Amino acid sequence: MSDTAARPVTETFAVRERKQSELVFRRFLRHRAAVTSLLLFVLVVLFAYVGPLLWKYSYTDITDDLSRSPSLTHPFGTDLIGHDTMAQVMRGTQQSLKIALAIALIGTVLGALWGAIAGLYRGRLDFLMMRIVDIVLTLPTIAVAAAVAAQGVGGSQWWSIAVILGALTWPYVSRVVRGVVLSLREQEFIEAARALGAGNPRIILRHLLPNALGAIIVVATLTIATGILGEAALSFLGVGVQAPDTSLGLLVSINRDAVNTRPWLFYFPGLFIILIALTINFVGDGLRDAFDPKQTRVRQ
Amino acid sequence: MTVLLEVDDLTVGFPTEDGLVQAVRGVSYQVSRGDSVGIVGESGSGKSVTSLAVMGLLPRNARVSGSVRFLGEELLGRSDEQMSKVRGSKIAMIFQDPLTSLNPVYTVGSQIAEAVRAHKDVTRQQAMKRAVDLLDVVGIPNPSLRVNSYPHEMSGGMRQRVVIAIAMANDPELIIADEPTTALDVTVQAQVLEALEAARKETGAALMLITHDLGVIAGHTDRVNVMYAGKLVETGTVDEIFYGPRMPYTLGLLGSLPRIDESGRPRLTPITGSPPSLLNLPAGCPFRPRCPKARDLCAEVEPELTPTADRRHLAACHFHSELASATAEEVFS
Amino acid sequence: MNPIISVRGLVKHFPVRSRGILRRQIGDVHAVCDVDFDIYPHETLGLVGESGCGKTTTGRLLLNLVPATAGTINFQGRDIVPLSRAQMRPLRREMQIVFQDPYASLDPRMTVHEVIAEPLRIHGLYRRETVRDLLTTVGLDASHGNRYAHEFSGGQRQRIGVARALALRPKVLVLDEPVSALDVSIQAGVVNLLEDLQDELGLSYLFISHDLSVVRHIADRVAVMYLGRIVEIAPVEELFQRAAHPYTQALISAIPVPDPRKERSRRRIILAGDVPSPVDPPSGCRFRTRCPKFAGQLSEDERTKCAEEVPALTDHGEGHQTACHYAEALALI
Predict the structure, then answer these.
(1) What does the entry give for GO biological process (chain B) (predicted)?
(2) Residue A229 reports pLDDT greater than 50
């Protein structure tokens, strides 16, 4: 072998380049609202999942304190039969978050695959798939979900709500992913993979989806916010989570008559819904800006 | 000879999160009336930033120091408005992408005519007639039809020639062409370079030609400035640079070029490694890590441009005298 | 010796569709038209031409990455044009491609090890050691495997692209402008690497490039394309010393030589106008609209022949074929 081929080329890098993840992280940190929101959201998650371990009451406990306003013993007060509202909000947040995450997961996986396949194959298949997306998008989500849930599919388990709402939110994800894939498929590395003999499944799973990951993470985040609100709406309508279990939506629904007499029962769970939806939206905004390469470049 | 452009100790830095990128580090050169000066270097050498600094077109966050004088007047620190009076009248610019200098909503004829009327008190008809003549000079076929075309209706090569025609209409003292043919095919490049020569002949303007293509430099310039890592590393007449380079980088660059005029297959002599990062440049000569001739001194002291055999042939190498009549193969393999 | 690849009558038309929902087909881009060539074992065939001449499409067609409209591509005694993607898969081990853009052709989400391992995994040949060996073969450090492509310079990335193409031990490599995106000092190293690999592994190359200097350096034979057709094909020395097609002559004369004295005395053939649209190519000889011979030397009868009769590639001896009715050898360098 001749000298050039054999000698390792130890070149110093012309300009220090950062990993994309590092760049994204830096840009995200610069988005103050997003960082604050992320912190708040983490606190909410800790409250919901670690809180019950530390708090003296469980959401099923019935105390002797009836209809108390917030105090040191019951920071969020109690309801008519003596449930500690803070314990209920903890459980409610847990359930709502769980459902919202499941909605986001189902919607994102389905939507990402759907969008990637449509974008990669193009042509008639793409046309057909995207018309289906259009149709699903025109459905009034909550009305359809309520109608389906009212049939008692899945026996009103928490996951049945997630499946129903997930099945209605994926079109948003698929539109975004298809757009990204349409531009990715023209890149040379996709053609290179083809030249190596890679089939479509490999191209989708190994190349297209990992490269669309930024966009997918962003829409997934926003889907969580939609999920929280969707669950709340369904539970409010009485077709979501059923007692004795609880969720934020259900708490608001049960206590809506108490809004004037015992406002703490209504406002605390309501506050948590708003808090989660808002913080996640801000985090999503921050992520979108961080992944967008058209943002102010960190390096030249 | 009158000195048109005088660049003195020009330094340009761009602040980034990692620190200051030293794009240009103390560059000095002159362009006299009628000169044709080439600036050659690879990507990241600072050749384009230098010309942008001269024309006052750097982004706002750039840190510029030194001095750029045109006919004795300082250009650095002028407002945009003051600069635009100089740009386009005394100094004409030609960029790699001609679309940036053409207005998409006017016909090329009216854009040339406008430039003509800015300098001469003539009627619209006369200006339009002059536009047709100018298009003919830059070699555009059917100029009387083409004056009515819009920029998007023309090919890249034709647009570039329209830009040259506008430059001529302004009757400039200096034409700065920054990679004017890089995006073009060779036969179109030949057309554009021919148009550029025609423009020089007609206006008598000096030319500053910035390119990475040593072939274009060889055919169209009298003096050559070689840039590396933000500095001038060698300057001399075109013959001195091509036939007797005194900086190892220049020698290596010439040795790594495949030649269309050489038969057989002489092995190319590449320069190992790549250009240094312009952030936190290490002490000493920036070419040292890639230079087979490097010694201890090179790691400590950055060489200044010093005269070689000829007073006006300068090289930034401590050992430039050793390079007299050396070949790239001897040095690099 | 038998050719390893024989291409006969290769045609590729891309449909041009109208805008709107109907998207009716309103024409065809004649990207590649009736192209014939052979590649022999251990040979480099250079394919040159300007942008839009169909050279890149020809490379893609050769690998069946885009389906041919007509023609045959005979590889190892078998026509690959009608093969499906699945049927092509085993043949991918024999034919590979290196792309022009070392940035876009490597998946940014993969480590270098994964990039090079991908072909091996697809064909069930993956071994960690193989990847490490490939890295060393192309002159990179085997320990660099767990880095991402963007941590490397352009030249290093192109070496990674070469390693990936070599992973399956192919017999034929299509090199699509492999060094055009690189700085000259880096380019030479990759050219040398490609030459060494060819000697060592007995590869055949289709070297696609617009840069005639590199082609002269690396190719054994050269085919020149214009507007979808091969206009001249000849052994490299023959072509550069006795170019007979007016287009080849213009192309060679337009290449700037990095030698000021030669450059000053060279005769340049400047072509008029632009390349016609491949949607509606000229009848007869496609070059006639820009041909200096057609415009300046031919009689009326001779011109009629150019306009009516497509010139076929005819052999002038020494394997030198020219598609011009009035071909005449010319020395230009």
Answers:
(1) peptide transport
(2) yes
As a residue count, chain C comes to 333
- Token pair, residue C145, equals 């495997």
Q: Is residue C153 domain-resident?
A: no
Q: How far is B319 from chain C (nearest CA, A)?
A: 21
Dump pLDDT digits (tens) for C160-189.
999 999 999 999 999 999 998 888 888 999
Least confident of A90-94, A116-120, B14-18, B236-240: B14-18
Q: Note the pLDDT of residue A3.
A: 35
Question: What is A23-48+84-291's CATH number?
Answer: 1.10.3720.10
Nearest to A292 by CA among A28, A17, A19, A18: A28
Q: Do A15 and B270 touch (CB under 8 A)?
A: no
Question: Do the domain assignments include residue C100?
Answer: no
A150 and A239 in contact (C-beta within 8 Å)?
yes
C259 in any annotated domain: yes
CB pairs < 8 Å spanning A and B = 37
Q: Which residue has the higher pLDDT, C86 or A11?
A: C86
Superfamily classification of domain B3-221 = P-loop containing nucleotide triphosphate hydrolases (3.40.50.300)
* Cβ-based neighbours of C213, under 8 Å, separated by 6 or more: B215, B257, B258, B259, B260, C255
**Helix (H) or strand (E) run with residue B211 in it:** strand B206-211
Min Cα–Cα distance to chain B from C50, Å? 6
**Rounded Cα gap, residues A44 and A50, in angstroms:** 10
ipTM of the complex: 0.87
Strands C204-209 and B36-40: unpaired
Range of the domain at C324: 241-333
User: How many domains is chain C built from?
Assistant: 1
At residue C8, does pLDDT exceed 70? yes
Interface mutation vs chain C, best among A20, A196, A298, most C CBs within 10 Å = A196
